[in-house]
Amino acid sequence: MIQFILAQATTGDDSAWMSQLLLFGGIILVFYFFMIRPQQKKQKDQKKFIAEIKKGDAVVTIGGLHGKVYQVEDDKIILEVDKGTKMIFEKSAVSLEQSKKLQEK
Predict the structure, then answer these.
(1) First to last CA, the chain
(2) Which of 4, 81, 82, 98 could cross-link 60 (Cys pair, CB 3.0–4.6 Å)?
(3) Contact at 8 Å (CB) between 59 and 79?
Protein backbone atom coordinates (compact mmCIF):
# COMPACT_ATOMS: atom_id res chain seq x y z
CA MET A 1 0.00 0.00 0.00
CA ILE A 2 2.77 2.46 0.90
CA GLN A 3 4.60 1.66 -2.34
CA PHE A 4 1.44 2.45 -4.29
CA ILE A 5 1.07 5.85 -2.53
CA LEU A 6 4.73 6.72 -3.10
CA ALA A 7 4.47 5.70 -6.74
CA GLN A 8 1.52 8.06 -7.24
CA ALA A 9 3.31 10.91 -5.52
CA THR A 10 6.37 10.65 -7.75
CA THR A 11 4.52 10.28 -11.05
CA GLY A 12 3.42 13.90 -11.31
CA ASP A 13 3.52 15.70 -14.62
CA ASP A 14 6.08 18.41 -15.40
CA SER A 15 3.48 21.20 -15.52
CA ALA A 16 3.16 21.20 -11.71
CA TRP A 17 6.91 21.65 -11.36
CA MET A 18 6.89 24.43 -13.96
CA SER A 19 3.97 26.25 -12.32
CA GLN A 20 5.75 26.21 -8.95
CA LEU A 21 8.87 27.61 -10.59
CA LEU A 22 6.86 30.39 -12.23
CA LEU A 23 5.13 31.17 -8.94
CA PHE A 24 8.43 31.55 -7.08
CA GLY A 25 9.87 33.60 -9.95
CA GLY A 26 6.85 35.89 -9.78
CA ILE A 27 7.23 36.33 -6.03
CA ILE A 28 10.89 37.26 -6.49
CA LEU A 29 9.98 39.83 -9.17
CA VAL A 30 7.32 41.38 -6.93
CA PHE A 31 9.80 41.67 -4.05
CA TYR A 32 12.38 43.25 -6.34
CA PHE A 33 10.12 45.84 -7.97
CA PHE A 34 8.09 46.79 -4.89
CA MET A 35 10.65 46.54 -2.09
CA ILE A 36 14.29 46.28 -3.14
CA ARG A 37 14.41 48.65 -6.12
CA PRO A 38 12.63 51.60 -4.45
CA GLN A 39 14.89 51.28 -1.39
CA GLN A 40 18.00 51.32 -3.61
CA LYS A 41 16.71 54.41 -5.42
CA LYS A 42 16.03 56.15 -2.10
CA GLN A 43 19.57 55.39 -0.86
CA LYS A 44 21.04 56.67 -4.13
CA ASP A 45 19.08 59.93 -3.84
CA GLN A 46 20.18 60.36 -0.21
CA LYS A 47 23.86 59.90 -1.14
CA LYS A 48 23.53 62.38 -4.01
CA PHE A 49 21.83 64.94 -1.74
CA ILE A 50 24.54 64.61 0.92
CA ALA A 51 27.28 64.97 -1.68
CA GLU A 52 25.69 68.18 -3.04
CA ILE A 53 25.25 70.00 0.29
CA LYS A 54 26.85 73.44 0.09
CA LYS A 55 27.23 76.51 2.23
CA GLY A 56 23.98 78.44 2.68
CA ASP A 57 21.62 75.48 2.22
CA ALA A 58 18.76 75.23 4.70
CA VAL A 59 18.63 71.66 6.02
CA VAL A 60 16.94 69.57 8.69
CA THR A 61 18.75 66.84 10.61
CA ILE A 62 17.24 63.44 11.29
CA GLY A 63 16.77 64.64 14.87
CA GLY A 64 14.60 67.53 13.65
CA LEU A 65 17.09 70.40 14.11
CA HIS A 66 16.69 73.15 11.49
CA GLY A 67 19.69 75.16 10.42
CA LYS A 68 21.67 76.76 7.64
CA VAL A 69 24.92 75.19 6.46
CA TYR A 70 27.76 77.40 7.65
CA GLN A 71 30.70 75.26 6.53
CA VAL A 72 31.18 71.93 4.75
CA GLU A 73 34.07 69.60 5.57
CA ASP A 74 34.80 66.07 4.31
CA ASP A 75 32.15 64.11 6.18
CA LYS A 76 30.95 66.82 8.56
CA ILE A 77 28.95 70.01 8.27
CA ILE A 78 28.71 72.97 10.60
CA LEU A 79 25.15 74.23 10.96
CA GLU A 80 24.25 77.69 12.14
CA VAL A 81 21.09 77.14 14.14
CA ASP A 82 20.88 80.71 15.50
CA LYS A 83 22.98 83.85 15.18
CA GLY A 84 26.37 82.91 16.57
CA THR A 85 25.30 79.36 17.50
CA LYS A 86 27.01 76.71 15.43
CA MET A 87 26.82 72.94 15.76
CA ILE A 88 28.83 70.18 14.09
CA PHE A 89 27.00 67.23 12.51
CA GLU A 90 27.88 64.28 10.34
CA LYS A 91 26.64 64.69 6.79
CA SER A 92 24.72 61.45 7.17
CA ALA A 93 22.61 63.11 9.89
CA VAL A 94 20.91 65.37 7.33
CA SER A 95 17.43 64.20 6.32
CA LEU A 96 16.69 64.38 2.60
CA GLU A 97 12.91 64.18 3.01
CA GLN A 98 12.60 66.84 5.70
CA SER A 99 15.06 69.16 3.96
CA LYS A 100 13.05 68.94 0.74
CA LYS A 101 9.85 69.79 2.65
CA LEU A 102 11.63 72.79 4.18
CA GLN A 103 12.84 74.00 0.78
CA GLU A 104 9.35 73.64 -0.73
CA LYS A 105 7.88 76.00 1.88
Answers:
(1) 76
(2) 98
(3) yes
